[in-house]
Amino acid sequence: MADQEKKQHVPYYRKPEELTVDEWQIALRKQFAEGKKFTVKNIGDQPFYSDYEVYNPETKKTYKVSIRDNINSFNYCSCPDFRVNGLGTCKHVEYVLLDKLRYKKYQKLISKAQKNDYSSLSIHYVRDRQVRLKKADHTGEYPRETELFDKDGFLLPGMTAHLEEFIKGATGMDPDFRIYPDVFERIDRDREERSRQEKLREIFPDGVQSQIFDTLVRTTLYP
Questions:
Q1: Which of 60, 99, 131, 160 is the most exposed place for a label (fewest CB within 10 A)?
Q2: Do 59 and 159 fall into the same domain?
Q3: pLDDT band at 31 (very low <50, low <70, confident <90, very high)
Q4: pLDDT 10s digits, 99-109
Q5: CA nearest to 141, candidates 160, 115, 116, 166
Q6: Same domain? 119 vs 180
Q7: H/E stretch holding 121
């Protein structure tokens, strides 16, 4: 009976009443992964919690998948769907899990609480793509940690500008500290945004009340 429920088709165009929208979308990605024949290559140094290359022979595209924990929100894929869907998974992540969890040794491993052997900074794609600090077990406090991160390890609002200084201090204290590439992308993007805002304030010191808007168009604008 359990196998029949597991294989029950999930409709693409109608959400089942018993599922939330997120549960429905996750189920669709699992279902899609079951019907594919991707090529999976472990490019990391661990048998399960590792980095993988997932190749789709239909599209000829390869994406990087990271299985970092048995908590889904720590996983990562470089595909466009993963970055925008807010689910913490995609068909590539689900395919890797299906591929590995065919084996009992990995099923047993993923059911246990994981030891945090290293600290890291990553992007939490389920929670508004916030920067998150995951600390290794028995690791002390990093310089400026409590100033920049909340008790759950999420970067506080407006603190991206201080991340590079934090990273320098953390890696100096802990050589095994990992920073994932999308964190640097976030730092660069926020730096560019701050630069744009500064330029706008320089050009339009009075904001929407700046005199340049008085002669920009020849009609009366709504507020």
A1: 60
A2: no
A3: very high
A4: 998 888 888 87
A5: 166
A6: yes
A7: strand 120-124
Together in a domain, 5 and 106: yes
Per-residue pLDDT, 116: 78
Predicted TM-score (pTM) of this structure: 0.74
Average pLDDT in the 25-47 region?
A: 91
| Domain co-membership, 209 together with 164 | yes
Q: What is the DSSP letter of 10?
A: P
Could you read off the pLDDT of 61-107 as tens digits, one per residue?
Answer: 999 999 987 777 789 999 999 989 989 899 999 999 999 988 888 88
Q: Are residues 139 and 102 in the same domain?
A: no
- Amino acid at position 202, single letter: E
Q: Which domain holds residue 102?
A: 1-112
Which segments of the chain does DSSP mark as H helices, in order? Answer: 2-6, 21-34, 80-85, 91-100, 104-110, 145-148, 163-173, 181-203
| Strand partners for 122 | 132
CA distance 53 to 13: 30
